[in-house]
Specification:
mainly alpha
C-alpha cells in the first residue's frame, strides 16, 4: 500500500508537470495543483493513517481512476483550446 501510495503521489505531481515535494509540504503543494481529484487531501490523510485497512485500498483505487479520467479530460480540453 505504501508503495502504491507513492506511485499515486508521483503520478499526481508529474502529470501536473511539477516536481514531487517532500512529505512535509505535501498538503500545501496539492492545493496548488491544477488537476486533482475532489477531497484529495482528506482522502490521502485517511489512506496514510490506515494503510493496512481494506477501505484505504479501495479509496486509493478510486483516486487512481478519478485522476486518470481528469487527466484525459484536461488533455482533450488542451487540444480544443491550444
Amino acid at each position: 500500500m505504501v508503495i502504491s501510495m507513492g506511485y499515486f503521489v508521483a503520478f499526481l505531481f508529474w502529470t501536473n508537470e511539477t516536481n514531487v515535494p517532500g512529505i512535509l509540504n505535501l498538503e500545501q503543494e496539492i492545493k496548488q495543483l491544477r488537476i486533482k481529484p475532489i477531497n484529495i487531501s482528506e482522502r490521502l490523510d485517511f489512506i496514510m493513517s490506515k494503510p493496512d485497512n481494506y477501505h484505504s485500498f479501495v479509496q486509493l483505487c478510486q483516486l487512481f481512476e478519478e485522476f486518470t479520467k481528469q487527466y484525459y479530460k484536461s488533455l482533450l480540453l488542451m487540444k480544443k483550446n491550444p
